[in-house]
Amino acid sequence: GQNIDQPTEMTATEGAIVQINCTYQTSGFNGLFWYQQHAGEAPTFLSYNVLDGLEEKGRFSSFLSRSKGYSYLLLKELQMKDSASYLCAVRDRGNTDKLIFGTGTRLQVFP
Amino acid sequence: GAVVSQHPSRVICKSGTSVKIECRSLDFQATTMFWYRQFPKKSLMLMATSNEGSKATYEQGVEKDKFLINHASLTLSTLTVTSAHPEDSSFYICSAISGRTPNEQFFGPGTRLTVL
């Protein structure tokens, strides 16, 4: 079956660094995505990993280990506006391009 | 960046009626569109994959006669919730893939459906 796990909730302080983990067990793998979603809004794309290693994009970085079925999203210099849900999604292998979403992690940033 | 719109943004209807939700790619042609539903404080659940000119592929457990999907053109897909019931109340989100950037799904702003 398909299983993608993330912590349900996390809290952090403004200016700090936070790491959100994602573990997955899927029948196929063709890339892992991270999305940010504010309440009542659509998800917005943050990062994409298909090969092992770290992808850095400004304050956000994402890491992937395919052998371990593991990824993390690293947020640096946290700002209040980073309070949101963070969704890990795995793209299924094949030509469907469909994404299987994890449970999502609600991050609350405090001053 | 690519823009996807949804209409309506909110709809309230009586039990037993049907509701149509539109998903449009505004500045690109979408080879594939997806429909998701999301319950409060939960993640997105894929309902179906829609390709222009062909029948939608539904995920296991999603009733195709209940959730009718029509992908009439490369910029428009519609989801019709037929004979809606209160348990169909949810946040419905569509996404689209452009042939030029196949690694990214562009999400619409979502439609909040409330069935009384």
Helix content of chain B: under 10%
What is the number of beta strands of chain A?
11
Beta-strand segment tally of chain B: 11
What is the count of helical runs of chain A? 0
Alpha-carbon Rg of chain B, integer: 13 Å
Order of helices and strands of chain A: EEEEEEEEEEE
Largest sheet of chain B: 7 strands, mixed
Helical amount among residues of chain A, as a percent range? under 10%
Cα radius of gyration of chain A in angstroms: 13 Å
Question: What general form of chain A does the structure show?
Answer: globular
In oligomeric terms, what are we looking at?
heterodimer
How is the biggest beta sheet of chain A arranged? Answer: 6 strands, mixed
Low-confidence stretches of chain A: none
Q: Report the span from N to C terminus of chain B.
A: 37 Å
Topology record:
The complex is a heterodimer of chains A (111) and B (116).
Chain A: E1 3-5, E2 9-13, E3 18-25, E4 32-37, E5 44-49, E6 53-57, E7 60-65, E8 70-75, E9 84-91, E10 99-101, E11 105-110
Parallel strand pairs in A: 2-11
Antiparallel strand pairs in A: 1-3, 3-8, 4-5, 4-9, 6-7, 7-8, 9-10, 9-11
Chain B: E1 4-7, E2 10-13, E3 19-25, E4 30-38, E5 44-51, E6 57-58, E7 67-73, E8 76-81, E9 90-98, E10 105-107, E11 111-115
Parallel strand pairs in B: 2-11
Antiparallel strand pairs in B: 1-3, 3-8, 4-5, 4-9, 5-6, 7-8, 9-10, 9-11
